[in-house]
Amino acid sequence: MASRIVRGVVGILALATTLGSARGAEAPPLDRGVGQRVSNFTLEDVSGKKISLYGYRGKKAVVVTFIGTDCPVGNLYIPRLVEMNKEYKDRGVVFLAINANAHETMEQVVAHAKERGIDFPVLKDPNNLVADQLLAERTCESLVIDGKAILRYRGAIDDQYGQGTRKPDPTRNFVREALEEVLAGKPVTTASTPVVGCLFDRAETASANLAKSRRVRGASPEILAAIKEQGEVAPAKVGKVTYASDVAAILQAKCQSCHRPGEVGPFPLLSYDDARGHAAMIREVVDERRMPPWHADPRYGHFQNDRRLSPEERAKLIAWVEQDSPLGDPAAIPVARTFSEGWTIGKPDAVFEIPEPYTVAAQGVIDYVNIRVPTHFTEDKWIQAAEARPGDRGVVHHIIVYVDDHTKKSRKSEGHLCGFAPGDLPSVYENGTAKKIPAGSDLIFQLHYTPNGKITTDRSKLGVIFAKEPVQHEAHTRPIAQGKFAIPPGADNYEVNSTLTVDRDIRLLNFMPHMHLRGKSFEYKATYPDGRSEILLSVPAYDFAWQSVYVLAKPLTLPKGTRIDCQAHFDNSEGNPNNPDPKKTVTWGDQTFEEMMIGYIDYVDEEAIASKTPESKPADSTSSSD
Description:
- Helix content is 16%, strand content 26%.
- The chain is built from eleven helices and 28 strands.
- It is globular and about 85 Å long.
């Protein structure tokens, strides 16, 4: 099994906005309370001081923003709030932040405010009383209240960040625009906007909280058709559900590989308290089919790493939240799942680390960083497994590790060793299959950093396990790419195609489609020499924030002369909420506001190579590169 990583990927968010359900509660009105007087409230801040809204009488405006300690979108916006506080405090504007998550303690709120450098009052709303009073639902929701305590704006801070997406810069600065109009004594032109953030964990019952959930976007017709064929189970039909007897096993199997410390999930789901504290968000993302992330149309292909919930699993998770998240008998909780410490592939034979920590800014767009690391190999090495590991997962969106053997073809076609991105897996091959690192090669770490709201450092690394048995098949990675395209402004379904005809018999192992923010759908199709054709993989709703590798349950033999066609569609219209600029013609480029069209495949030659017997005890097997 192998994995392909991509260029130009952003977003660390495990709660990526992907396939959503078209069903569910109607969204509440966006302008809740706008134009009405806000009642006073008093809460304690992180210093122990009591803060009252009406204590700021005489100020020209108060901006109240709801935050949480582990909401990834909310954390991205904290530097923006800090900047605006500095900009507006001398103009008579006060900024307040409120944490209304019932499961987050004051100690956690204090530590979070200190870590993130929040220099304005951060208040704790322990029983959601103020959140209820202000009709707030999610983190990232901002309210602009004028000097007469009239609510003048409610909604998003700006339009730069979303669930799993980010633009290079905001195109609308909603809070700033509202403040400028309030300070000028003018009506607020845009008085309400939708908010993308994490639902509060409320002190009230989980079932009562469900009415506050919003739907994000509907599933594609292809996915809905496949779901209908598969059949669904209504939550009301599964009976009584408890964490101990039902939910814990589902979370272990489908969620904990990402939702545990040090991994891509923004919060752990290892215990009952973890799950109960995030019950509202679990219900929402499961109901909308945003989690677990899996984007392949189930009508085509069979994949060994399919993350989908079964209809019964999905119904049980939703029913558990609707039944107020009962624990059940603690003795029935399954034995905790164990994970490898630090490495998914097991203890590496060799580890290569970038030589110096790289400082990542709190926000902005960072160009790709390429760092050369020598292997010091004096002979060819065969790699059975390879895993790239970020030093700080919070800011490393993708890593690609290339092998530079100092030949012209190295980086262009044969040099791809492995990589990392949200959703991707390490490169692991079955016995007898491996990749080669020639003697004297260097490793090139290509790193794409995406700031997460605080200044940090990263020192990413690569671990490899050498083949211990004779190698008969050399694994290859091949991009099927099309770089010559120009997506017109406003085009909502622009088609780009690429093709590859195999010049020998191969066994296909996996796929990894890659596009950027305007990516809409991707399909691989094989046409065999006898004229027969079949769809190998269809991704009808491509998710830029979750880069999946689709590992075939059984390798597929493609005879010489088979043509692989990749077809991608792009949405460069205003209807694409992730679009950085719908008025721009878009061409190939590394950055996320540009585009790519690549259909990666991993394969081996069907005919075995001459047996390559690796050393039983490789040299430098436990050392790190300098």
